[in-house]
Specification:
The protein is an alpha/beta fold and 194 residues long. The protein is built from nine helices and five strands. The chain is globular, with a radius of gyration of 16 Å. It binds BIS(adenosine)-5'-pentaphosphate.
């Protein structure tokens, strides 16, 4: 299983990626979590990305690609991955495909979580109050949603044209979303293995 998650901020990519990875016995790799670990650890990567992340802007492609290369290769050797937060743009998807194909690590299925803007804002505001993530303020939430629409949403067509997109209604309780995602992935996988 080599899967990536697409969805707007707050759509449940992290929540579902963890469950799906556990279900299929593969690793969950989150670009956002790895970047936040760098920020918390004060590493050179962390210092380079902190301001952009706090503003809700994407960080430079080169940083993300270098950071993910080893974990993705290692996970591929161990049976696969669920990648959450990458790619964020068609450019990232194309660059990653060229590298990953040579390693036999290219993604096979993309899972798109569809959630209404109203519910996204509700979830991120709630988390902002509880967990205090720096990018969960109202102003930054709005900007993150704009960045998704402009930069990331074109990936939905990109993967649909490659016939490897699974769409799931993410506007439901967590367990229902997980069940629908796993059912959709099983079907997509059996079609691919055909
Ligand atoms: P990233 O960490 O990827 O953040 P994001 O896309 O903004 O997504 P979130 O983590 O907010 O939401 P999620 O979809 O994972 O949902 P979650 O499960 O957490 O990226 C952060 C930043 O890093 C970016 O802005 C950028 O700066 C940088 N970055 C990362 N990758 C990059 C890349 N490839 N290129 C360039 N820059 C990059 O759930 C959200 C909340 O809702 C939680 O509280 C959860 O408990 C709750 N929830 C989840 N599902 C449900 C449900 N079904 N019902 C009710 N509540 C739910």
């Amino acid at each position: 299983m080599r899967l990536l998650m697409i969805g707007p901020p707050g759509s449940g990519k992290g929540t579902q990626a963890e469950r799906i990875a556990a279900h299929f016995g593969v690793e969950h790799i989150s670009s956002g979590d790895l970047l936040r670990q760098h920020v918390a650890g004060g590493t050179s990567i962390g210092r380079a990305v902190e301001e952009r992340m706090n503003r809700g802007d994407l960080v430079p492609d080169g940083i993300v690609m270098d950071m993910l290369r080893r974990p993705v290769e290692a996970a591929t050797r161990r049976g696969g991955y669920v990648l959450d937060g990458f790619p964020r743009t068609v450019e990232q998807a194309e660059a990653a495909y060229l590298v990953a194909r040579e390693l036999g690590a290219a993604v096979r299925i993309a899972l798109y979580l569809e959630v209404s803007d109203r519910e996204l804002v509700r979830r991120m505001r709630a988390r902002g109050r509880m967990a205090g993530r720096a990018d969960d303020s109202d102003e930054v939430i709005n900007h993150r949603l704009e960045v998704f629409t402009e930069r990331t949403a074109p990936l939905i067509d990109y993967y649909a044209r490659r016939e490897c997109l699974v769409r799931v209604d993410g506007d439901r309780p967590v367990d229902e979303v997980t069940a629908a995602a796993i059912a959709g992935l099983r079907e997509a996988r059996s079609q691919l293995d055909g």
